[in-house]
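Hey,
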Amino acid sequence: MREVRVQDAVGMMLCHDITEIVRGERKGARFRKGDVIRAEDVEVLLRIGKEHIYVWEDDENMLHENDAAVILRDLCRSDYMTASEPKEGKIELTSTVDGVFEVREDALNAVNDITDVMIATIAQHYPVKAGTKLAGMRVIPLVIDKSTMEKVRETAGSEPLLRILPYRKMKVGVVTTGSEVFHGRIKDTFTPVIDSKLRAFGLQVDEHRLSDDGTEHTRAAIEELLALGMDMVLCTGGMSVDPDDRTPAAIRATGARVVTYGAPVLPGAMFLLAYYEKDGRSVPIMGLPGCVMYSPATIFDIIMPRVIAGSEWTRREITRLGIGGLCMECKVCHYPVCPFGK
């Protein structure tokens, strides 16, 4: 690569894209890598502020920015992703399915610690739809030493840095607890909210049971749904510390392994997550606090996408939700495009 005056560049090969920005109209490459500069191009280059450009000279020890971006693409991409063509030295990855985005954080951070290399992604465990932009990557200079990119390969390791976990088809059972609903004193307004949230993931409430506040009655309702082959069981009501709130005890009584009762998230502090494990199956059981019924975004919206994608939560992951776990209660909810749960 060699720097020359544009007036002296006629007949030479450009080794980088040159961007033209016209405010309010366009931003894009006016000239592309590999273009041979013509006499009529000189005035155009001067008009967009380029008095000097880089022209290509072969160097066996160096890689062009586009070729380096391809290496980064190959280290990042896995199933259910599509890549753009290199443009102005950058490549972007996009999801081809609905699911949950995951990144190997330590490895990606180690790659970004290498000078002159960058990969930017969306947030860890972000729920994506087909067409969602996932990541962009490039090197900083126009050309980079091949040894640097070899170091990048070694640092990234053999597994892709990024992956998408597609949402699964699941049969969902709901147990509505509370003597006021069980005896018909009030209408169940919780289950329709759950059904609406599930339908956003292509799911629905497949089986529904009512229970009073008795621990044994609620346990029996949960076990009935498990026996029917439900892939997920959601229990609403009875999650606070009042004497009649016995849903956590009922979930424990099934023998399910409780990951957490309580979470550093508002709304959603009284949330419970457990897994019922039998015959090689691991069925998530959730106890949902009342806030899920009336708040647009809660702990349930944070936890549910990964559960549907088949990724099990650990207690440590849930306790680490505290930073970013306070919903700002915006007048217009934009979740998940907001800091909540990130």
